[in-house]
Write a structure and sequence with these properties.
353 residues, alpha/beta, six-stranded parallel beta sheet, 15 helices, 13 strands, elongated
Length: 353
């Protein structure tokens, strides 16, 4: 007999668009591609803010968008979903309320590496969840230590950033004669550690004058970081760019000096484009990067160690090739399809479809 349709109601109430929102979209799109004849019918809806950038990204897709600018909105008497999937903190509150109102079971995905604060409402919302999903081993450990609900691990995945040969050629011409050390991330130093990268740039300015540091992204610390690096002629602030795949194609190395990181899915895109990586040995990053096998790991906040590792790779192309080849070989486990299959199995088990 054919399976009953499985209706997953995704919830993401974030204001902007960062890694968690990208992962939400990747999952929705990958689930939509799954062959219904093999897996059974899947229906999806998304609860999000009216100004959410995800609405534009999903334009033309057969998915119901439900308006909710806060956790109390969007609980109208529409057909009940089989399961609610909360993708960030405010969404967990929405899912808990929906369960209280309509009895819909929910799961939540935890993406940040800090332990969940032991507060009464957190205990309620996590204990109400059918399962909590951790995107990395460090998050899984924290959740299991709380022991508030069942826990599984499903990692974030690469986004498959495309590149346009014409645009790549333009970028190669622009950076001709220079080795590009790239960085992609929100300009929030307490998270991404851009000040560590700037100190490394100061050290390499004299020893490797052909190397330049190209930073893509924007954020709350943008103006301050630019002011602090005004004397560095080897630092280029490119701002937010939608075509990061083009930039990845022209990078010699990828630097990711995060001070904390749930997993670091941006690293997967660098790996996919064959860019050797130097990253912080912190939180979920070692789930992706094995030191001196698929990249180099350095202590977080240590600009000297970062500069030393970047220098070592700039001076050893063969080592770079070895690291990037090993990194690419790991990507099969980090595709949107792999994530969708893992979540679908979890959905079906919990919804008993």
């Amino acid at each position: 007999m054919p399976r009953e349709p499985l209706h997953i109601r995704h919830v993401n109430l974030a204001r902007g668009f960062r890694g968690g929102e990208r992962q939400t979209l990747l999952l929705i799109e990958a689930l939509a591609r799954i062959d219904d004849n093999k897996q059974g019918s899947i229906e999806q809806s998304l609860v999000c803010r009216r100004d959410s950038p995800m609405r534009t990204a999903l334009a033309g897709m057969d998915i119901e968008l439900i308006d909710a600018d806060h956790a109390l909105a969007g609980h109208a008497q529409r057909p009940r979903a089989s399961l609610t999937h909360a993708h960030e903190a405010k969404a967990v509150h929405w899912a808990w309320i929906e369960r209280r109102l309509r009895g819909t079971p929910y799961i939540l995905t935890r993406r940040v590496p800090q332990p969940v604060k032991d507060k009464r409402f957190n205990r309620w919302t996590y204990r109400g969840a059918a399962t909590a999903v951790a995107i990395s081993s460090v998050i899984e450990t924290h959740l299991r230590e709380r022991d508030w609900c069942p826990v599984v691990r499903i990692p974030s995945v690469l986004s498959g950033q495309p590149s346009d040969p014409t645009e790549v050629t333009k970028l190669r011409e622009r950076f001709a004669g220079r080795r590009v050390i790239g960085h992609i991330g929100a300009l929030v130093d307490r998270h991404k550690g851009q000040r560590v990268l700037l100190e490394a740039a100061r050290q390499l300015r004299e020893t490797h004058p052909d190397a330049c540091f190209l930073l893509l992204g924007d954020g709350a610390d943008g103006e301050a970081l630019k002011a602090e690096s005004a004397d560095l002629d080897n630092v280029i602030w490119e701002g937010f760019q939608p075509n990061v795949g083009d930039y990845l194609e022209i990078m010699t190395l990828f630097a990711f000096p995060s001070r904390n990181e749930g997993l670091g899915s941006t690293l997967l895109d660098a790996m996919d484009h064959g860019v050797p990586i130097v990253a912080s040995d912190v939180d979920g990053i070692p789930d992706l990067i094995e030191n001196d096998v698929s990249g180099l790991l350095v202590p977080p906040g240590d600009a000297d160690a970062l500069a030393t590792a970047l220098t070592a790779l700039l001076e050893d192309p063969a080592r770079c090739e070895r690291l990037s080849a090993a990194a690419r070989a790991r990507l099969e486990s980090f595709t949107p399809e792999a994530m969708a299959v893992a979540y679908l199995a979890l959905y079906r088990r919990l919804a008993d479809c």
